[in-house]
Amino acid sequence: MQNKKSTAQILTEILQFHSLGKNCAQEKKLHQKYHKIQKLVQSVFKDKLADKPFQSGSLKKGTAINVKFDLDMVVPFSFQAFSSPKEMYETVGKALQKGGFEPRHQKVSYGIKALKVSDKKIMFVDVVPGLEIQKNFYTNSKDLWLYKRNENSSIKTNLDRQLAHIRSQNDQVRAIIRLMKIWNYHEKNINLKSYMLELLTINAQKNKSTKGLENMLLWNFEYISKHLDLPLKDPGNSTNDSLLSEIKSAAITDYKNRIAKIHKKLEVAFKEENAKEIKGILMKPSPNS
Predict the structure, then answer these.
(1) Cβ contact 221:263 at 8 Å
(2) What's the pLDDT score for residue 288?
(3) How many C-beta neighbours within 10 Å does residue 250 have?
(4) Looking at residue 262, what is its pLDDT?
(5) Are 158 and 56 in contact (CB under 8 A)?
(6) How many CA atoms lie within 13 A of 31 on its CB side?
(7) Which phi and psi angles does 35 have, rounded to 5°?
(8) CA-to-CA distance for 48 and 155, rounded, in angstroms?
(9) What is the DSSP code string of 63-108?
(10) pLDDT at position 286, please?
(11) What is the pTM of this model?
């Protein structure tokens, strides 16, 4: 008779099932597209760059899951390269279009189609142009202006610091981030952005010292159910604490209630070491799969 698996073993299995693996074909194709875009950007804008484009996104952060991961290219431009962040954004878009990449306009970036996984799932490389805050300032500060297309405004951030903030977390915290992403991907009634989950998880684990995947994950759900309506600060800009502002207040209340119920269900399933129930909660069939 097969021994019953512990909750920790069940969670580890879920993580392994969603891991990329050493030879992930999708990841390879994303990197191939990334390098083609990088080559174009460096060729067209070689005299305008404050530094070489660098990789960001969940792959670089170590928080990627195989059902959903991204590859971001941050392109830092020198202060004198453009008259404004808007000019920078539009010029980069034109260059990508001319290079045959068919860029998709996004909030502060361009999405470049890298591969089609299914009719409902397409993976993109996101190109994020940023303009140096002051002349000869980027090398030391890494601060950049991003252009917010939908608002026709600019926002100061530090994408290098954001990346370092996630990468500096220990393996267990990043495992909890991946478990939260797995749950969020399969959860059809709640839609939290990846960066929200990353920062909320880090805040939760700093707020209370817990050990073991099961205890850490339970606390994560409890913390989010109680704190989703509080300001969430951008580690790349200490003055920006409105990262959750795009979620409407009515939705936040609904999310908090739903997450509180999920926390209670998980608590029971964890105590019973009920693999079917745990996987049913964290791995619901996704409407996007």
Answers:
(1) yes
(2) 43
(3) 8
(4) 96
(5) no
(6) 8
(7) -70, -35
(8) 20
(9) --BTTB--EEEEEEEPGGG-SSHHHHHHHHHHHHHHTT--PEE-SS
(10) 43
(11) 0.89
d(CA 287, CA 115): 20
Specify the residue for token string 């990846």.
194
Positive or negative, the CA dihedral 120, 123, 127, 128 is positive
State how far the Cα of 126 lies from the Cα of 92, in Å rounded to an integer: 12
Cβ(281)–Cβ(262) below 8 Å:
yes
Query: What are the tens digits of pLDDT across the range 245-254?
Result: 677 788 889 9
User: According to the model, what pLDDT value does residue 1 have?
Assistant: 44
Could you say which architecture CATH assigns to the domain 21-158? Answer: 2-Layer Sandwich (3.30)
Token look-up 């399933």 returns 269
Domain borders along the chain are: 7-15+167-282, 21-158
pLDDT of residue 25: 81
Six token digits for residue 127: 């190109």
Residue type, 129: P
**7-15+167-282 maps to which CATH number?**
1.10.1410.40
Nearest to 230 by CA among 242, 221, 222, 218: 242
User: Residue 85 is encoded by which pair of tokens?
Assistant: 């962040």
The backbone torsions φ and ψ at residue 248, rounded to the nearest 5 degrees and listed phi first, read -65, 150
Low-confidence ranges of the chain (pLDDT < 70): 1-2, 22-23, 241-245, 285-289
